Each structure stands twice: as structure tokens, then as C-alpha cells.
Amino acid sequence: MQLDDGELARRAGEGERDAFAELVRRHHPALIRFCSAALGDASRGEDAAQEVFLKAFRALEGFGGRSAFATWLHRIAVNHCLDLRRAEARRRSDSLDAIVEREGERLERALGAGRDPAAELEERELADRLLSALPEEQRLALVLRETQGLSYEEIAAAMACSLDSVKARLRRARAALLEAARHFSDSGGV
Amino acid sequence: MDHDELRLRLSAYRDGELAEPERAAVAAHLAACPGCRSEARAWEGLARFLLKDRPAPSSAAFTARVMAALPAAEPEPGWAWWAPAFGLAAAMLAFSLLSPRWQTVTTDSLLLADLSADAAAAGTVAPRTAADGDLLGSVLESR
Questions:
Q1: N or C: at which end does chain A have fewer Cβ atoms within 10 angstroms?
Q2: What's the mean pLDDT in B16-33?
Q3: Residue of chain B minimizing CA distance to A170
Q4: How far is A23 from chain B (nearest CA, A)?
Q5: Predicted local confidence at residue B140, as pLDDT
Q6: Does residue B38 sit at the A interface (CB-CB below 8 Å)?
Q7: Contacts of A190 (CB under 8 A, 6+ apart)
Q8: ipTM more than 0.85?
Q9: Residue B13's pLDDT band (boundaries 50, 70, 90)?
Q10: Alpha-carbon dihedral of residues B130, B136, B139, B143, nearest 10 degrees?
């Protein structure tokens, strides 16, 4: 019989390392994906996810099962990624407009039909930079919603904010990215 | 709700987070408004590009790396108490087993030592065993 996350977390908190290993096995793909998108750097996703799991392990006693383990894990991940991002002033200084201005052609290719598989990595890097230009709260809310499929309630719990804040952050993030894409489209692109 | 109010709700509508009757109002608006429909479609394409196409890596190596990086397990609380006590008991046992028996001082050995000294002073032969000592003692007492 497969144990649920809550039971595994309880056992892991009592020192059962196999239980924690099972939690890592279950959640690491989603967590790596989240960290990659949240940091705007796919190459750092694994390292960041590893750090998040280590923090979670040390904090297991504080997991009372009041929320789902995945939500609790994402809350740790959100804080960890915010800490890492705060240390990166240079990358954050790029505005959406500046990126679209410089990378317009690549954005057109990326959004157009018949994408070249060979250019996928390059496009991923561009996508990361576009996401990185969003304010932190907006980007994290968007990533939690789009890559992790969290509900608004779960995002609010992970980001320690209200439901209204989640709605506003997602709306503004989408509007800003659509505006950037539209700006390029109007000037002859997409 | 007017057009702008409905447009502001497109994001939550897409996420399935609108309650009735707002959800129905936005759905009806989307059916009637080409601009909002176009915006909704545009977001789908952009979201796919920005976020959805990300691979979801899954590897045993990652799990192994995390587990190897965990802090070392602490000893059981019982062992924390037992280990020093056990060590002390073992040391005492070893000391008692390894100590030479000749260091043990008995009444017999003291008597033998005294008799040897007396014998040496008198130029006679001292007893060498406890049995000799007993015999000699009884002889002396009979005097």
C-alpha cells in the first residue's frame, strides 16, 4: 500500500530516511521545474531544488500536516528562490521592453509555428529572461500556477499572501507578458 | 459588468477560479468578443512557450544526491546514555581482569613475609607456602 505524503513526512520527521527518500522521488521533478522557472535559469534548477529538500528535511518538525506536503514544500521553495533572486541585482535590471527590443527576432521565431528543435535551448533561455523581467511576486505566482498547477488557495499559502493578491499578481503578470508580445507583434513580429 | 471589468477576469476565468455568476458572464462575453477571445488564445501560446514546454526531469541520481547531502543521523537517545556507562563498565572489568593477582595482599602473605624476616634474622629457613606457615604457626603457638 502506498503511503500518502503526510504519513511519509511524519515518518521522515521521526528519522525514517527511506520515507524522506520517497518524498524526494515523488516531488523532485515538479520542484526542479519550479526552481528553474522561478530562477529564470534552467541550469540552476537542480541545485536549488536540492537545497529546498535539505531545508525541508531540517524543518520537518515544523510540518504539522496543516497543509498538503506539496504546498509546504513550495512555500520553502518560494522563499529559497526569492533569497537567491535578491542576490542577483544585475539580471533583474532587464525590463521586458529592453528584452523585446534586443531579442525581437528570436521571440518571433520562438512564438511562431514550426519551431526548430535545435533552437529549443536558446528559446528556453529567452523565455527565462522574459520571465525574469517580471516583478518577483508576479513571476513566482505565474510559475506556481502554470508549471505546478497550484490552485489560487495553494498559491496564497505558498506565498503567504491573500487570494486577492494572487489574482492580481497573475492578472498583471499575464497582461505584462501579453503586452510585450503584442508590442513586438505590432512592430512586424508575431 | 462592462467590457473592461470582464476582461480583467479573463485570467481567473482561464484558471477556473471564478465562481458563478461571474464565470458564466465571462464565458458569454468571450463568445461575443473577438478581442478578448484573441487575447485568451494569445496567452495560451505565450504560456506554452514560457512555461509549459519545460521538461520534468526525474532521476534516481537526484534522489541519491539529496539523500547523501542530508546531515548525519543522530544516535538514539538511549545509546546516548548507555554508551559512556557501557564504556566505563567495560574499562573497569578489563582492569580487574588484567591486574596481576600477586598484587593482592592477604593476611597469609603478610604473615609469611614476617616469618621470612624472622627466619632470616635467626639464620633458619622461612616457610614458602601458606601450609608451611600454618604448620609453623601452630608450632610456635605450642611453645
A1: N
A2: 93
A3: B11
A4: 9
A5: 47
A6: no
A7: A107, A108, A111, A112, A181, A184
A8: no
A9: very high
A10: -120
A-B interface: how many C-beta pairs under 8 angstroms? 99
Of A17, A46, A171, the CB nearest to B11: A171
How many Cβ atoms sit within 10 Å of the Cβ of residue A7?
13
Contact B26, B10 (CB under 8 A): yes
Tell me if B42 and A145 make a contact (CB, 8 A cut-off).
no
At A12, give phi and psi (nearest 5°).
Answer: -60, -40
Rounded mean pLDDT, B67-72:
90
Say if the Cβ atoms of B63 and A33 lie within 8 Å.
no
Average pLDDT (B55-79) is 78
Length of chain A (residues): 190
Nine-digit cell string for A128: 527565462
B140 touches chain A (CB under 8 A): no
* Whole-number pLDDT of residue B136: 43
State residue B115's pLDDT score. 56
Comparing CA positions, the residue from A150, A149, A147, A174 lying closest to residue A161 is A150
Where residue A173 falls (left for φ over 0; alpha for ψ -120 to 50; beta otherwise) is: alpha
pLDDT band for position B27 (cuts 50, 70, 90): very high
Cα A60 to Cα A8, A36, B76, distances in angstroms = 11, 24, 18
Return the residue of B nearest to A142 by Cα: B51
Nearest chain A alpha carbon to B47:
A146
Of the CA atoms within 13 Å of residue B30, those in its CB half-sphere come to: 17
Q: Is the pLDDT of residue B111 over 60?
A: no
Q: Copy the grid coordinates of residue B143.
A: 611453645
Probe site for chain B from A14, A33, A96, A138 (most B CB atoms < 10 A): A33
Q: What pLDDT is stored for residue A71 in this prediction?
A: 92
Q: SS3 for B71?
A: coil
